[in-house]
Design goal:
By secondary structure, the protein is an alpha/beta fold. The protein has a single domain, classed as Rossmann fold (3-Layer(aba) Sandwich), CATH 3.40.50.150. Helix content is about 35%, strand content about 20%. A hairpin with a 4-residue loop joins strand 8 and strand 9. Helix 5 crosses helix 6. The longest helix has 16 residues. The protein is globular.
């Protein structure tokens, strides 16, 4: 089976994101993949085109690698919130986060740093940090335990805007096999939320992400994703029993049957 060559990553849809991914991404310590960052930036552009606007948040911002890409994808006047305990692996991580944001063009007027445990935060407090507006995009990359992910998902759901997206990091990672248990329980308890797509891993550290959306928005978003990412759609998709969604991958081959 032969395959035509395609770009290593899809267009992020924003010149500032494209420049950062090409020239600055690897200089910021972190484990998120460039492939996923490009897709998530393009999802933010898609939201804007669909009339979904407002602030975003990342739970587990670390030194800012993924956060900076997301912030560059925002429209003028939109705010990016960075939530983290900022004590791992050492207390200097918050200073490095702030320095990385400044070095890569995300000024203090475009972001808000929130130090603390997101799982202990009330939805009203997070919304207040966002100026009272619901969040259109929430990336969850916090503590990798079932209990923490369950709390983070509850917070994200309570703060989600109409048409909003929740992105879960390190799904199906061999180091955190029980996270999928928390995700399945969440989906069963929240039938109005469904997987929109799976973003395949780039490496074992640049791991798989799940993108979740409101069920009422699934068809609307899926039709656009099929157009935008047509070169990156793995043909068989993902079966969440009974829900089906797209898989976006750099490698779209199927196994050869001989």
């Amino acid at each position: 089976m032969t395959h035509d060559l395609k770009p290593a990553i899809p267009s992020p849809g924003h010149p500032a994101v494209e420049a950062y991914l090409a020239e600055g991404y690897d200089s910021v310590v972190g484990m998120s993949s460039r492939f996923a960052a490009a897709i998530c930036a393009r999802l933010l552009r898609l939201q804007t085109q669909e009339g979904v606007t407002g602030p975003i948040a990342e739970i587990g911002a670390f030194e800012g690698r993924f956060f900076i890409a997301l912030a560059h994808a925002l429209e003028p006047g939109e705010l990016a919130l960075a939530l983290d305990i900022f004590s791992w692996p050492d207390p200097g991580v918050e200073q490095r986060f702030e320095a990385n944001c400044a070095r890569h063009g995300i000024g203090a007027e475009r972001r808000r740093t929130i130090k603390g445990d997101a799982g202990a935060m009330a939805p009203a407090d997070l919304l207040a940090q966002a100026g009272g507006a619901p969040l259109r995009f929430i990336h969850i990359d916090g503590e990798h335990s079932r209990a923490a992910l369950t709390r983070d998902l509850a917070l994200a759901t309570a703060c989600l805007a109409e048409g909003g997206l929740i992105v879960l990091d390190d799904m199906l990672h061999p180091g955190y096999p029980t996270l999928m248990v928390a995700v399945q329980a969440y989906l069963e308890a929240n039938p109005d939320i469904v997987p929109l797509c799976v973003i395949d891993r780039e490496t074992i550290v640049g791991a798989t992400k799940f993108v979740l959306c409101q069920r009422a928005w699934f068809e609307r978003y899926q039709s656009r994703l099929l157009e935008i990412f047509k070169d990156f759609v793995w043909p068989l998709g993902a079966d969440f029993e009974p829900h089906w969604c797209l898989v976006l991958s750099q490698d779209t081959r199927l196994a050869e049957i001989v």
